[in-house]
Each structure stands twice: as structure tokens, then as C-alpha cells.
Amino acid sequence: MATTGFHVAVVGATGAVGQQMLRTLETKDFPIKKLTLLSSSRSAGTVLKFKDEDIVVMEAKPESFEGVDIALFSAGGNISKLFAKEAVKRGAIVIDNTSAFRMDPEVPLVVPEVNEEDLKSHNGIIANPNCSTIQMVVALEPIRKAYGLDKVIVSTYQAVSGAGAAAIAELHNQTHSIIKGESFNPEILPVKGDKKHYQIAFNAVPQIDKFEENGYTFEEMKMINETKKIMHMPELKVAATCVRLPVETGHSESVYFEVQHESIEVEDIRSLLRDADGVTLQDNPKEQLYPMPAYAVGKSDVFVGRIRKDLDEDKGFHMWVVSDNLLKGAAWNSVQIAESLVKLGLVK
Amino acid sequence: MATTGFHVAVVGATGAVGQQMLRTLETKDFPIKKLTLLSSSRSAGTVLKFKDEDIVVMEAKPESFEGVDIALFSAGGNISKLFAKEAVKRGAIVIDNTSAFRMDPEVPLVVPEVNEEDLKSHNGIIANPNCSTIQMVVALEPIRKAYGLDKVIVSTYQAVSGAGAAAIAELHNQTHSIIKGESFNPEILPVKGDKKHYQIAFNAVPQIDKFEENGYTFEEMKMINETKKIMHMPELKVAATCVRLPVETGHSESVYFEVQHESIEVEDIRSLLRDADGVTLQDNPKEQLYPMPAYAVGKSDVFVGRIRKDLDEDKGFHMWVVSDNLLKGAAWNSVQIAESLVKLGLVK
Prior knowledge:
Two copies of one chain form a homodimer. The first copy, chain A, is of the alpha/beta class. The first copy, chain A, has nine helices and 14 strands. In chain A, the strands form three sheets. The first copy, chain A, has a six-stranded parallel β-sheet with strand order 5-2-1-6-7-8, sandwiched between helices. A six-stranded mixed β-sheet of chain A has the order 10-9-11-14-13-12. In chain A, helix 1 crosses helix 9 (327-343), helix 4 (131-147) runs parallel beside helix 6 (218-230) and helix 4 (131-147) packs across helix 9. Chains A, B: One of its GO terms (biological process) is lysine biosynthetic process via diaminopimelate.
């Protein structure tokens, strides 16, 4: 731990994303003078390593946030609703990785490559978008800026780690059972709190989060609404179908989009994305170069490939977008927001 | 074997689809008086069971088709190109499951629920469409008939069995290796004859078949071109992104489509598909009822669910289409074509 820097709290430190937050704070060398690790009472007492130091995880309480500069929340929406305002009251800036405040008009929803400026209007809480939204807007923003954007239709291929550590364990255990010819009982996926559970190993499940009244899932509506908010485009047409796959980490997306300018070619889009912040272009069909989740794990960037012009619509294009959902989709985007806050002089 | 019925030949009897053809001929009780099983020289000599009878697989030669009424080909495009016309010359009707003749204007490309009538114009060879195309057009045709169809954008979630028995083995072996923490060397997928091979277990690979010059894969172009041909709609806008998953059998598709009529509602589409030939509607979000590949294996039907109206386009809808790629996508559609030929009196 450094002697200068910030007092950072991580809420939900023992979870799948919390673990990645610790690793990301280490690898990106965020300036930390004190690190407080918090969790529910259930996980309190766990000892976690940070830069070779042992830190005991404490149960989150309102008083836990005394003196904290930046609090990274990732312990579920209910914990955020309970404690985020308590933390703000005590002078912390909260970067919340749950859906609790994302659509609150008072709360900026930020992907630094897209709308870093929105941080300036924060009122103590900043929301980190949904994982599947983040990687898509990082790829779309340079295109919107250069050529305008009218319409997006996305089908996702999402990893189980988005549903937490228990879902990862379920994929492993089921895969084991199926290979050994043993029976098994789905208990977590597709949605922990929902009525029915289905096999995920060697399957594709078209449900992420619960269903809304309109037949879309919450995950699909998150992609639709968050994209419009982050890009400041309430008029943008966005449609989403979200599907869970037997992949541990790494979300993929098949994205169709229509630009506003005419006669744009694939090479124009490639040039933009080759130089875009946070994007690695992997797009060479001749060399079978395209992004894949198994090869994106552990990397911070959003990988884009398979860019093609639609064969019927002059303004239509297709692309394939892959990223580590625990990093750019969660931990890294949160730490990046913290970095932007420091850079913009927004942390006291 | 019955004393009346037809002399049927199965070419490629030892392959993943060939095996399913034998099982389908059994379960659908197709009228067979003689069954000839053929293969390349490599697999000749294998003994296969059909209705408790042992049949020795013979090497395919032009003479093998003497006296054959119906020849079901599924041994790769090269074998079809070599022998289909030889079979026709000897009086057989060929039902070809490869891509060899699909886009030949002289060859009907048939999905019986959609364009059975096209069989009447056959010249000896009938092509069975690509697996991913078949299940999509079965779901789209009732919609087209009732409300017209302008546009289709599909993203696929395809099983490895579409790439043959070696690809199934590769998925199994890799999964084993990864679980045990052992190293492995991808050798088959995504495309056996292509330069590079990638991990398929716990991954998603956006390449099925080789790339064309335009950046689309052959699989994607098959879906685009075959859909137009089967539905007799050269003007239909179709776009496809095809992705291979760690699923053994069962293709899934996220399909966006635009109808021509105005003010159609989800319940209108559901009503149509509830009564459609070859379709099982599984669509009740409240009960988490939707199709999934792991639960569609071994079934003949095309399963449709997740039907939603697009939130921006009055004429736009989304649906999720699943089917057993070895059955309706291959063996069952081929046998169904044979049944239609018999029903229409087209077999001598």
C-alpha cells in the first residue's frame, strides 16, 4: 500500500467480480493508501490478499464508509440500495456495479471511452453499466461519432460468470456429470431466484435475468435502455436477445447496426476501430482472425471482428464483439471510472 | 424388411447424419423392400444394424445404384458430385444432403412444410437444404403466408455435430482435457480443411465453413441464398451470422424478421405457429417456457419461442428457433422428402 493515494473500499470483495476488482486495482496500480474490504455478514472474516498483504473482509455497515474516498460496490442491488447513500453521506464517491441506480436520471451511467464527461455531473453515485452493454457501446461509439447511428439489433452469447461464482461451479459440476454419465439437478441457472432451472452444460439458454411483462428479459431491457442513456440517444432503435452459453468467462455479441451516412465501406469501419480507445481490432477473414471468448479472458480490451456490410442495406453492417465480462464488463470499467474521477479532479 | 416398398440406398451410412438416416427410416417406418448401405472405401466393410438385420456397408461405385429407387446421399459434396448423376442414370431419385446441387436451378431445394410442390419439377436430383436454413424456413413460412415477409436477420448458435463425428469427438476430448487441466491441440474445428483450428469447448467460434471473398462464410451465404430459393423470394432481405458452440446436437437461432402487414401482434404469430406443420410452439415467458437445444435432441419438430414484437418497428418481431440439426436439419428432412415423393406418386 502506498502512503499517498486514496482510501478505497470494495463492497462484495469475495464475489466473482469483487475478486477481479482486487486484481484490477493491483495490475492497473491504482493509487491506494488504504483498502477496506466489505461483504455481507456471511462472508465476513474471509482473508484476501492484496499486493501480498492479508486483509480481513469486514461486514458492511454504514460506519464502514467513514473516511472512504471511493467505494466500489458489487454485492448485488439490495446491498447497494442499503449502503450507497450511507457511503455518499460520509463523503465517499460510490461506483456501483449493480443495476440499482443505472436508470436514475440523477446518476451518470458511464463507460469512460464513451461518456467520461458525464462524471462531472455526479451526485455521489456513479453507475457502472451492465456487462453486455459496456462492450457493445465501446465498439459502437467510434462508429456513431464518425457516421451516425440509427439502429442496433444484438444477439448475445453470454458466459456463466455473469451470474456469479455459483453459476461457474454449476457449469463445472454439470459438465463433469454429463461426461461421466451421471444425473444432475440444475439449481442456479438461468436465474438463481426464478422458478425453473435448466441445464447449462452443452446447452444454450435464451433467458438471462427474469422476464418483464413485455416478454423481454430484464437483461435485454438493460441493453436497450442503458445503450440509449450512455450514448445520449433516446431516439436510437435498439433490440436485444440475450442468451446464456456454456462458456465460463467472455461475452460475445452478434451486432447488426445501421449508420446514418451513405456509402460507408467495411474498411472505413475497420480504420475507425483500429484506432479506437479500448478496442482491439481482430478482423482478417483470410487468416481466420476474429475474436473468441476463450482467447479474450484476462484482457481489458473489447475485441471486434467479422465486420461485414449488409448485402441488402447500404447503411447496414454486422460485427462480432467479444470481451471479458468480469473485466471490461465489470471490474475494469469500475476501476477505469475511478481513474477518470482522479484525472478529472473529481475525488476530494 | 418388407416385401413391398422401395429399394433405398444410403450413401455415407457410417457418418453422423447417415446413422440418423437409418434410425429415421426405422422410426418413421418408411416402406423399404431392400436397403443398400454405401460409403467410401475407408468405411466399407462396417456392419450396421437396421431393424435387427445386419447389413454390410459396401464401397460406393456407379454400379451400386442398379435397381435403386431412392438414394439418400450424405457423404460430402465430392461423393455426391461423383455418384449422384450415376445413380440418376440408373433410374434412382437422389435426395442429396450436401451442398453440391443446392443452388443448381435444375434441382429443387425442398423443405416439405414449405415447398413440397417443387418436387414435381425434379430431374432426378433433389437437394436437402443446409440444417440451419431448414429450421428457420419452417418457422418463417406460416408467417410469410399470412402476413408477408420483407426482411430476416439471423444469428445462429450451432452444434458441433453439424461438422460430423470427428467434431463431436473433439468437443468431448477437449472438454475432458480442460476439466483435468491437461493441454490439448485443436485439430478439426472450426473447419476441418481450413488452415487454423481453435478451441471449441467452453468457447464460441464465429466461423462455420470457410470464408468467401465478401467476408461472409459459406454457411452464412447458404442461409441467405437457400432461404430465398426455398421460399421463392429472390427479393427477400436475408442476413446471417453463424456461430459454432460447445453444444453436441441442436441448433438455435435468434431470428429478427419484418412482416408486410401492419399492426400484427405477438399473439397472432403464436396462433399461426401453434397450428403450423412441423412446429412445436414453446412460448410462455411467465412459465419460463422456451426452446433449448439440450431438450430438443431426438425430436423431429422445429421448436419456436421467445416471440416478441420489436419495440421500435411496428412490423418487426424476434423469435428463438431450435431444432435437432441431425434430424429436421438433415436425416428427417431427407426421409420426409422421400415420403413426399411417394405421396405425390413421383417414385417409379
